[in-house]
Write a structure and sequence with these properties.
The protein has 135 residues and is of the alpha+beta class. It is 13% helix and 25% strand. It has an eight-stranded antiparallel β-sheet, with no helix packed on it.
């Protein structure tokens, strides 16, 4: 009888475990290997949102942070040299979430650059000579 009561108690205790005691594992892709030796030229695509111009992967700059997405996951880095970490959905800027994936791949436009202190400055573009003009 004592043995039956003990087994019943153990079974009920195991079933009554709180939900918070369960482990939740979120699988995210590995961080990107995106790295720039110098701050890359960026193009402003929306107020406060810049994209690194003409890249295979979309890399955005918002408030001094570099952002990129892999599937459903966003990564961010504080520096153009990398150091990417998974960003929780609540910290991803809303304007980035609204951008359709792939929209700004290989984007070209009027270039600006983000300095080390997060300031956005225009990049002087080199004008190409289009040949001699005949008079």
């Amino acid at each position: 009888m004592c043995r039956t009561l003990a087994l019943t108690f153990i079974s009920l205790t195991a079933l009554a475990m709180p939900a918070w005691a369960q482990n939740v594992v979120v699988v995210a892709p590995p961080p990107p290997a995106i790295r720039f030796e110098v701050p890359p030229p960026v193009v402003e695509v929306n107020p406060g949102v810049q994209v690194v111009s003409d890249q295979d992967e979309e890399v955005f700059v918002v408030d001094g942070w570099y952002w990129t997405r892999r599937g459903d996951h966003w990564f961010r880095a504080r520096d153009h040299r990398g150091g990417w970490v998974v960003a929780e959905p609540r910290v991803v800027p809303a304007p980035l979430v609204r951008i359709p994936p792939g929209r700004y791949k290989h984007w070209k436009g009027r270039a600006v650059a983000v300095t080390a202190d997060g300031q956005v400055v225009r990049v002087k573009e080199k004008k190409e000579k289009k040949g001699k003009k005949w008079k």
